[in-house]
Amino acid sequence: MVSAAFGASTPALAVEAERLLWVRSWARWLLPPEGAEWIETPTVDPRPGGRIAIAVRQQGLEYRLSAVFAEIAAPDRLAFRWSWGADFPYGGPGDTEAIVEFHPDGTGTRAVLRQRGFTDPALSEAHARGWKRCFDGIERLLAETEG
After folding, report:
1. Which CATH architecture has domain 2-30+74-146?
2. DSSP H or E run through 31
3. 26 burial via Cβ count (<10 Å: 0-12, 13-18, 19+)
4. Mind listing the pLDDT tens digit for each residue in 73-131?
5. Which of 27, 41, 93, 127 has a CA 20 to 30 Å removed from the CA of 62?
6. Per the confidence metrics, is the pTM higher than 0.85?
7. How far is Cα 42 from Cα 121, in angstroms, rounded to an integer?
8. Cβ contacts of residue 124 below 8 Å, gap of 6+?
9. Are 81 and 94 in contact (CB under 8 A)?
10. Could you tell me the residue ranges of all domains in the chain?
11. DSSP H/E element including 109
C-alpha cells in the first residue's frame, strides 16, 4: 500500500507507504540494488551522518536524490533527511524528513515508510509513486536472492 496522505481540507503534503516483505528485510534498505534498469547503483554510507546518493532514470529523464541518515536503529528503524535538486522533474530543489520502521510479521517484515514536509501536493504524489517503485524493486530483489 502506498498513498499520499490527505486531510479533510488540506492537500497531500505527506507520504505513507507500507509493504509486507517475506523476509527479515530491514538491511535491504542499506544494500544497493544491482541490475535495476531504472536506478544506478547508489552510493551508501550506512551510519548516522552517512549519506546515500541515487541517480534515477525514468521516461527519458535522469535526476538525483540523496539522503543523510539521522538514525539507524537496527533492525527496527531508519530515519533520514531526503533531498532532491532542481533537476527533479516534479519540482525542486526540496527536502523532507523520512522514517522507515520495520515490524516482524509472521515470517516476514512489515516495512512502514512515512515522509513529511512537502510543500506541494504534486511533490508528495511523485514521491508516493517513487516509493511504490522502490518497494516493488525490493520485493523483486528479495524474490531473486532469498526465494
Report:
1. 2-Layer Sandwich (3.30)
2. none
3. buried
4. 988 999 999 999 998 888 889 999 999 998 888 878 888 999 999 988 988 998 898 88
5. 27
6. no
7. 27
8. 4, 5, 12, 13, 14, 15, 115, 118
9. no
10. 2-30+74-146
11. strand 108-116
